[in-house]
Amino acid sequence: MIKIWRIAAIATIVASSPVLAQTKAEVEAAYSPSFNHCMESGDAAQGITSGIMDCTGAENTLQNARLNQAYKTVMARLPARQQAALRTSERNWIKRRDERCREAADEAGGGSASGIIYSSCILDETIKRTIWLKDYPPKR
């Protein structure tokens, strides 16, 4: 059975992006306490796929809400022209994230590990984007 930390490490390495260069520690620091507790208890702690997927699914929902809030906050303070650029950037990022995470999952060769890798990749990439948005626009 593949250990959870190996799966997360593979997903993070495969899905890392030079544009979103947050460290693994920064990403892990953004995990909610409920996610950490979920992953350390019950089925997830035993490496059972359904338990891991339940934890990751709930955390993806929470982190997506954080991402949406960060996006709305940034959009509210930008002039219209920069809003359009950020909107385009966000749409392109979603496509790249989804493609990158599908590729990472495909490299796992199928099976339950693929689903875990995909979900973990989406989670970490969403956190990276939220961190990036909180510092947007970049300081020159």
Automatic annotation (TrEMBL):
**Alphabetized UniProt keyword annotations:** Signal
Origin organism is Sphingomonas populi
Would the keyword Signal be found if you checked this record's keyword annotation?
yes
Give residue ranges for domain Lysozyme inhibitor LprI-like N-terminal.
Answer: 45-133
Which residue ranges does UniProt annotate as crossing the membrane? none
Its name, as the record gives it, is: DUF1311 domain-containing protein
Gene3D superfamilies per the record? 1.20.1270.180
Q: Which InterPro entries match?
A: LprI-like_N
